[in-house]
Amino acid sequence: MAQTQWWQRGIFYQVYPRSFQDTNDDGIGDLDGIRARLDYLVALGIDAVWISPIFPSPMADFGYDVADYCGIDPMFGDLEAFDRLIEEAHARRLKIVLDFVPNHTSDQHSWFAESRASRENPRRDWYIWRDPAPDGGPPNNWMSNFGGPAWTYDPASGQYYYHAFLNQQPDLNWRNPQVRAAMHDVLRFWMARGVDGFRVDVIWHLMKDADFRDNPPNPEYGPGDPDIRRFLQTRSTDQPDVHAIIAELRGVIDEYEDRVLIGEIYLPIDRLVTYYGENLEGAHLPFNFQLIHASWSAPRLAELIADYDAAVPEGGWPNWVLGNHDQPRIASRIGARRARVAAMLLLTLRGTPTMYYGDEIGMENVPIATEDAHDPWEKNEPGLGLGRDPERTPMQWDASPNAGFTNGRPWLPLAADFTTRNVAVQLEQPASLLGLYRELIALRRDHPVLHAGTYRKITALGDVLVFLRESAEECVLVALNLAGTAQDDIPLPPGTYGRVLLSTESDRPRQERVEGHLSLRPNEGVIVSLDARG
Ligand code: ISL
Ligand code: CA
To answer: Most buried of the four, 92, 316, 528, 529, by CB within 10 Å?
Structure first.
């Protein structure tokens, strides 16, 4: 087995800082709150914490509108609080990964104030300004991801500026070398402070068609779809020249030892894997969101896992993501029972797993009425179910008021079930989802084959997904029953017998010997260590 890096062996855990832990009673999580919960993360067994944006921001998109890349929003703390967090995390051997949002700034960023001041301003070209179309309308048909046209008219200078997201999030012009240099310095600023890497927001957006040609219509667009689906984003995103930009970012990352570059990319597998770079000079980990969009059936999962595993280039490292702050909670997508099987899948697949805070206790979407929405997407395109507040609710720590998240009024409501579904309760129950996560993570650590072994698809037998993880030292079989009915005839590979290392059903005996066939209960997943029959 080749020497692996920490980001290949380890497990990432995303913290949405507004909702993790509040320490000053303003109802919003903060950096001291994350620091206060580090021991929980150590006990859980994760290796790296990715924190969604904590930089000064008017919060039009909850921090994804950055007004100063080298500061901390007072809501979250200050640079001293950040340094304390890094120090205490590192003392516990936890890595800290920040969210880098290079595609756009806030419209309150001083760069944009200068840029919009006049056409002659030296920073004019730091953003994307275009003349109106002949009819005075927007320069092309590109739509905003949050509804409506992606162009906003500036009457003072008579031009439109481009924003792939809110009009308060103008896109930077990455063709401008000064922009690139300034952003490289941002990465250096944080790495010098000890940051272990970055998750790069919408990295596939950084370059746009140089001629700003229209996007083609999307034949699949239909009623109930958000505006962004009207057109295929073939000119506004995923341009061939983005890879040179990313290679430069990677070059900056590589100036420091042991740092990781993760890219957020929503693209089909064949496009996604180009973000490793032709010669692996791109992102270390282009986020793989296949499990987020998959229909949860064994044949479908078997197919997409095989497709992805085969598409990852030689020398590239795979990764899997089960949830994030933009997507409905996994427990709500597939149900509580199958969330246990999903945990086992995430932690036994080949590739670095990324978990989303609260998924380890089975947090569900919390319904938020449109009139109570905070998320600008829900406000702009109400009633289509696009809102992202439901998956951003406060972490459920214990049964005390507001789940131990805050002594104030939480910025989003707590789930109704927090007195029974919380960390404190589940830490006491080995059979809980949290108990299962902790065992899975420990098992992944103790059995290097689970993070470093090869993946071999066996088959999808009915609704049972079966695969092998193999190394020179060990062979492990994973069998996941996605059906609500028992499955009795899962054959072991010829000439082998097995010992059960772990089941999603806590009362299944450990080390149980299995020969010939494996029987699974409804929605049961097992990890079996295989040996040759002697
Ligand atoms: O939500 C989406 C995928 O289902 C896409 O519309 C969107 O491109 C993607 O979620 C991008 O997300 C990132 O950038 C946004 C920010 O609002 C998200 O929170 C962030 O994860 C703009 O910075
Ligand atoms: Ca706070």
So the answer is: 528
Nearest of 470, 525, 522 to residue 496 by alpha carbon: 470
- Among 315, 317, 326, 323, residue whose Cα is nearest residue 345: 323
Which residue, 390, 369, 351, is CA-closest to 469? Answer: 351
Ligand with minimal distance to 34 CA: 2
User: 130 is written with which tokens?
Assistant: 């275009």
CA pair distance 265, 202, nearest whole angstrom: 6
Domain 6-105+177-441, second-level architecture = Alpha-Beta Barrel (3.20)
201 included as an active-site residue: yes
Looking at the chain, the domain(s) classified CATH 3.20.20.80 span 6-105+177-441
- Ligand 1 pocket member 168 (CB < 6 A): no
Domain 110-162 has CATH 3.40.50.2300: no
Verdict on whether the full-model pTM lies above 0.85: yes
> Half-sphere exposure of 432 toward its Cβ, with a 13 Å CA cutoff?
19
Summarize pLDDT for 333-373 with one digit per residue, the tens: 999 999 999 999 999 999 999 999 999 999 999 999 989 99
